[in-house]
Backbone:
């Protein structure tokens, strides 16, 4: 299972993940699909780092 990340240029601390549409990859069959999760807990713009995270904190987390 993979998720798509969006990283704004020059602002990696504002990175978001699409948790409402994960990618499922079957390496044996060499197929993949994107699944739409109908659960309000997951969004298409889930913040990876807290809004208060600085660029330095993000770099330290990497």
Residues:
């Amino acid at each position: 299972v993979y998720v798509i990340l969006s990283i704004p240029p020059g602002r990696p601390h504002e990175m978001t993940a699409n948790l409402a549409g994960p990618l499922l990859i079957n390496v044996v069959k060499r197929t993949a699909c994107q699944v739409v999760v109908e659960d309000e807990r997951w969004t298409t713009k889930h913040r990876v780092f807290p809004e208060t995270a600085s660029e330095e904190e993000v770099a330290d987390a990497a």
